[in-house]
Design a protein that fits this description.
The structure is a single chain. The strands form 3 sheets. Strands 3, 4, 5, 6, 9, 10, 11 and 12 form an 8-stranded mixed β-sheet that branches. This protein has a two-stranded antiparallel sheet with strand order 1-2. The longest helix has 32 residues. By secondary structure, the chain is α/β, with parallel strands linked by helices.
Length: 318
Amino acid sequence: MTLSPRVPELGALELLLAVARLGSVGRAAAELGVSQPTASARIKGMEQQIGVPLLDRSPRGSRPTEAGRLVVEWARQVVEAAQALDAGIDALRERRDARLVVVASLTVAEYLMPGWLLALHEASPGTAVTLRTANSADVAGHVLAGDADLGFVEGPSTPQGLAGAVVAADRLVVVVAPGHPWARRREPLTGAELAATPLVLREPGSGTREVLEMALAPYGGAARPRLQLASSTALKAAAMTGAGPVCLSELAVVEELATRRLVAVPLAEGLDLRRPLRAVWPAGRRPSGPARELLTLTRRSPGRGPHNRSSGSRTAES
């Protein structure tokens, strides 16, 4: 149903209510932050629009006419309904803006996300965060499908269809149990040797696996893995039980290396296993609300990985 052109706009109705309550166009104008001539002109325009006089004006002030009293009562109902609508919209926006769904690769989720989410909680304690984990390929799929507000991936490049920003840096290390022959090795491990050795690796689609395979491509590619496991925890357990050499994030083995439960194998200088860690979101749509706040906090965080990039590298990528 289309409203009649005789129905005044909401602002004019609010002004009429203020005049009826305060008994003066001037006082109503002051309360609403407009000039008295503007308020008087708006009242006259409303009277012409409706087709009846709404106010009796005198040196002592203004009061509604008989018709004006009816319009004031109807206007009150309209304004109260509009206020309820306004409050409801605010509540919906606050509820939406207070929710954040993040999907992150396992390395980021286990070793970096706890600190970032703690900082977000301190800055915005009302934000409810849902954190999901997946390998980097699946993270990209969830973000593209709209299942998450923000994603975090490992790997050499931003996944297709997404935009991103580097938020931390990491390096892969090769680790073995203390009893493994490589634990006593003095010469750095070459790329050719690493490529020829069956390793315990993450599953295809993980950022860790992708970086390793790219690094070993010049040496004929990685050998068929001895085992494929789906988490850093499982990889570490396999290495400590002597299942074979493991390649995983340096972030994941800080404690094990410090306590000598695992030993890092020295690598030849030409073997580059460094990798950026990225926040990602759909291309053409910048993060907003809690997602933008979390992204900002990741860049401010002092714990950006063992090989942090310089501030000049913290630019968004397309």
